[in-house]
Task: structure prediction
Amino acid sequence: EVQLVESGGDLVQPGGSLRLSCGASGFSFSSYEMNWVRQAPGKGLEWLAYISSGGSTVYYADSVKGRFTISRDNAESSLYLQMNNLRADDTAFYYCAREKQVVPGDYWGQGTLVTVAS
Amino acid sequence: DIQMTQSPSTLSASVGDRVTITCRASQSIGGWLAWYQQKPGKAPKLLIYKASSLQSGVPSRFSGSGSGTEFTLTISSLQPDDFATYYCQQYNNYHTFGQGTKLEIK
Result:
């Protein structure tokens, strides 16, 4: 069974940092591209970052470019999102989702909540 | 950046109705469009990819069409389980989601 499990969400002060993880199981993680997507409470979906299957290619949304870093460890079947200089408007549920070729998001994790507040 | 605009933002309908949601891209995205369904407190669920391909396990009452800049999601006969929020997503140039369409019970 394909599973994606996010962790690392927490309450953090503005300007702080946090590292999210997404553990994958039930499929060949190294064969899939991965994305991070977030959703502020009561709001729509916002794509944040993409990483290729081997990790050599990454893309970011303008809203997080320079502050967030996506990475992966294929040996550990894990995806990461390092978030620095956090702001109140980064408060959201953060989801990881897998992608392969023409199918952008067939499996998603359950999400992890990041709250940025003093 | 490519912008995605969905219409309507809210749609009221009854069980058995045929409904259509539209998604417009600010520039051509070919057929690189997906549709998702999301229920409160849950992760999005992929319904359609590459504009018109039905994801495995999704009921055939869902269908997608379009290319270039205009796309539609059609539900042929609404079922009680279909009342949810629907999002389009382009993946031709990075990824961008539409703002969502909330499908409510009339």
